């Protein structure tokens, strides 16, 4: 990968475990709590969902721009959690809407976005992850 | 997967693209901005790093508890971004420290944690992701 220089680096740290804060080195702090307890706070489910929704929608926004249409796309990622044989598992379902074009065009743009968006590339081959219009 | 009931569901939404806000339905709002611009705000790099650090450290915390040792583990995930052939790619490097045990024990606990932590399971097989003590 040496032909592609690094454009950005960040460091995300958790010291507290599931109750407390996670934080970016020299950056934002996010209160975290167990998703199965009533305590307020975010959790890995929300954070990975926000990462996928934001990455994919930013990529769709770039594709809209290439087609000279105003940005209207939206990505909603539902994250579900259950146990599995050894611990826990997440199920991600990212629903994409591009209201200014027909469904075939939206599906085509999404296919392009999935080749560009780094979070979709990290997650997309997993059987627990669905990305669709 | 029908044998494992869903224990938690959340929905993470991005409408704005890379500049604006991403949000959890009925929950937190996160300002987002391009990582290559000086504008303040989080980004997919930070959010996926926080998801992995928090999930993995929460799992290590549970393993510490099973061994009756006080929680001291820490996970620092460095996320780097570069272009690739079709768009962008992320490189994730999660560095785990468990200061109260020796390195072999820490490596063993990490191996167990990787079989339980849902974010590690979603990301761990990717060549761009490294998880290590």
From TrEMBL, chains A, B:
InterPro entries: KH_dom-like_a/b (IPR015946), OHR (IPR019953), OsmC/Ohr_fam (IPR003718), OsmC/Ohrsf (IPR036102). SUPFAM superfamilies: OsmC-like. It comes from the Bacteria. Belongs to the OsmC/Ohr family. This is OsmC family protein.
């Amino acid at each position: 990968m040496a032909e592609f220089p690094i454009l950005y680096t960040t460091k995300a740290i958790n010291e507290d475990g599931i109750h407390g804060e996670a934080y970016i080195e020299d950056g934002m702090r996010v209160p975290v709590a167990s998703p199965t307890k009533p305590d307020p706070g975010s959790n890995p489910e929300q954070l990975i969902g926000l990462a996928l929704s934001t990455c994919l929608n930013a990529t769709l926004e770039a594709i809209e721009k290439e087609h000279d249409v105003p940005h209207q796309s939206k990505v909603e990622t539902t994250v579900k959690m259950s146990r599995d044989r050894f611990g826990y598992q997440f199920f991600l379902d990212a629903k994409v809407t591009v209201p200014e074009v027909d469904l075939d065009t939206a599906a085509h743009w999404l296919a392009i976005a999935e080749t560009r968006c780094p979070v979709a590339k990290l997650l997309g081959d997993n059987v627990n992850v669905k990305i669709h219009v």
